[in-house]
Amino acid sequence: MVSRRVVACCSCALLLLLATSTAATAAGGGLRLNFYLHSCPRAEDIVREQVRRLYEEHGNTAVSWVRALFHDCMVKSCDASLLLETTAAAVSEQASHRSFGMRNFKYIATIKAALERECPSTVSCADVLALAARDGVAMLGGPSPLPMRTGRRDSRESYYGVVEHYIPNHNDSVWTVLSRFAAMGVEVEGAVALLGAHSVGRVHCFNLVGRLYPTVDGSMESAYGKYLRGRCPEAEAAEDTREVVYARNDRETPMLLDNMYYRNLLAGRGLLLVDQRLASDPRTAPYVRRMAADNAYFHQRFAAALLTMSENAPLTGAQGEIRKHCSFLN
């Protein structure tokens, strides 16, 4: 059971986020709390209800929303460009190697349909992604409630050609990862906190075998390496989402957004190479140690960084459009 002291600390931190949300950077200009208060009063309630229902039916959807927001916002703007499907005119960002393993996009359509029934052509797909991620974090035991500002509009184009320029790879250097987050206004501490989202979900063997064969990476705990070889028994793993061979990011609390991720890093049980490097890089290691020791601190920093990321260069006002169907332009 969570102590009253921890709950009080988290509540104070979230109130501070709420109090300072109006002092956002220029990157989030045009967004505001309760954007749909008059145009679609139940918008946020509808998203929350749908996220809860989908989580209860499918479980892993909450993880999908958090990853989807990261992928959408990191590539130029939080504008739902990620959701556009491939057409004769453009290739979807979902087709990029960096999007490997992403799923549950069809359920975004479910959430959007519920909103369209209530308020046609009013709530953007970009805001659906942001609110779904916020509510997904809550379903995963993360910080809640988060003062997520809304008013984003939807991109009219896919940025498939530049996805790999913006999204870090699983074996990139810490410097590369930090620089990509810095471009969104997320500082080092916030980047370390956001990578804590790797506490939930799973990784396909395709992204793991490089650390396991021909020999186990020296930075990995030997017993953990043996376990992962059992999960991924072959050095050649296919980049195929139909391949069900994978490993959980966190074996102890696999569906809780908690600080077990950092505790695992300190024990040499980081799943991806970029994760494990955080524990040894002098820029990030102090934050790893502090977050490993204090779950409330991790939640505070994660909440602040998530809100910053969610406001990366949004389209607002007359920019972009409000898609009726998130997968296609109007």
Q: Which short descriptors sum up this protein?
A:
two-stranded antiparallel sheet, mainly alpha
Question: Please, could you describe this protein's structure?
Answer:
With 330 residues, the chain is an all-alpha fold. Helices cover 44% and strands 2% of the residues. The chain has 13 helices and two strands; from the N terminus they run ααααααααβαβαααα. It has helices at residues 4-20, 43-58, 61-74, 105-118, 125-139, 163-166, 174-182, 188-195, 222-231, 260-266, 273-278, 285-293, 295-309, and strands spanning 202-204, 246-248. The chain has a two-stranded antiparallel sheet with strand order 1-2. Helix 8 (188-195) packs across helix 13. The protein is globular.
Topology:
Elements: H1 4-20, H2 43-58, H3 61-74, H4 105-118, H5 125-139, H6 163-166, H7 174-182, H8 188-195, E1 202-204, H9 222-231, E2 246-248, H10 260-266, H11 273-278, H12 285-293, H13 295-309
Helix pairs in contact: 1-13, 2-4, 2-5, 3-5, 8-13, 10-12, 12-13
Helical/strand content category? mainly alpha
Discrete helix count = 13
How far apart are the first and last residues' alpha carbons, in Å? 48 Å
- Give helix and strand order, one letter per element, not per position: HHHHHHHHEHEHHHH
Strand content: under 5%
Helix proportion: 40-55%
Number of strands: 2
- Give the CA-based shape: globular
